[in-house]
Model the fold of this input.
Amino acid sequence: MATAMVTQWGMSSKIGYMSYEDDPSQQLHKPFSESTAQNIDSEVKRIVDEAYKQCKDLLTEKKKEVGLVAEELLAKEVLGREDMVRMLGKRPFESNEEFEKYFGSRGDREGVEGSTPETGPLRGGEPGMF
Done:
């Protein structure tokens, strides 16, 4: 994803608003110079390193809360919104509209089978949860 951010979506000020499409027919020839390839590699590494640090810092900062949720998931297997509010308190956003304003989505589990925006379950066995 970080590579696509840099090479396809122009999300790097160092590389600029360029799009280097991933063309399978060009496997032996890159559409850019070796120095650009090195810049792309360094930008991708920077993005991944920053994301890793942010994630690690957040998990470290919220270690207690992550532990509470993990313990509750082991005990109950399924958590609803009311469980999360009971353990962690209300969301830092007053409403879904405010959350959407900053993050571009409602922040719920819309579209997940068996859940509703109000009570979307958090299941302990879902891949990628912890």
Q: What stands out?
A: Helices lie at 2-7, 34-61, 63-76, 81-88, 96-103. The CA atoms of residues 24 and 50 lie 30 Å apart.
